[in-house]
Write a structure and sequence with these properties.
single chain, 224 residues, mainly alpha
Length: 224
């Protein structure tokens, strides 16, 4: 053993001689009754196990028990996890079946409601069939007068727009004349001339009276 190694330093501090060989150190410790000493370098593993058999067997048994318990615990955890997954899947299937059933019930309710509505519509259609036949004859008697009344009203509307433009131009012309607005007089005088060329106010007045009389006769016909 080297003289500067920790073991040699410790031996020297204790007042021991630090031999170079390990065997000398062992003998030195034995001579000073520092022990107990067992030279395991000369003992086989079988002897060591035999000496400690009382501790090895319970340790092995305990280790095996721990392995078995660990295996069973893991197996139980896996079984519980699989059961939980199965229950979750079953619950999802039940929920989906419930949703499908509710959807089917809703569809059946809607279908029944539509059938009731269709039945009511058919009954109403039958009731209206007779009324429709009567209304068809009445409508024929009404449509003709209404047709020429609408035409007359459309023509009267055009006449009214024209007479409104002409009346407005004459009023503006009179206003410009009273205010001695030469440009205004010229402008509205030109506007009146264009409107008089565009249509004939006298004809519009005469034709308007005729259209009103025809429309009144048509309205009386509808009333009867």
């Amino acid at each position: 053993m080297p003289r500067d190694c920790p073991a040699a330093t410790a031996s020297h501090s204790a007042g021991w001689h630090a031999p170079v060989a390990y065997q000398a150190v062992r003998l030195n410790l034995q001579q000073q009754n520092i022990g107990p000493w067992v030279d395991y370098g000369k003992v086989s593993i079988r002897e060591v196990i035999a000496d400690h058999l009382a501790f090895v067997i319970p340790g092995l048994i305990l280790g095996l028990l721990l392995i078995v318990l660990t295996f069973k615990l893991n197996h139980s955890r896996l079984s519980l996890r699989a059961l939980a997954i199965q229950q979750q899947e079953t619950l999802q299937l039940h929920q989906q079946a419930k949703l499908d059933l509710e959807k089917s019930n809703s569809q059946l309710t809607n279908t029944l409601e539509k059938l009731h509505q269709e039945e009511a519509r058919l009954v109403q259609s039958e009731k209206l069939a007779t009324v429709g036949q009567v209304a068809a004859g009445v409508a024929h008697e009404i449509n003709n007068p209404i047709g020429f009344i609408m035409s007359n009203l459309s023509t009267l509307q055009d006449y009214l727009k024209y007479m409104t433009r002409l009346t407005t131009a004459r009023w503006q012309y009179q206003k410009a004349t009273e205010s001695k607005d030469a440009q205004g007089v010229l402008k509205w005088s030109s506007r009146i001339d264009k409107l008089l060329v565009e249509d004939d106010p006298e004809f519009i007045i005469e034709d308007g009276d005729t259209l009103i009389e025809e429309s009144l006769r048509g309205a009386l016909r509808i009333k009867k």
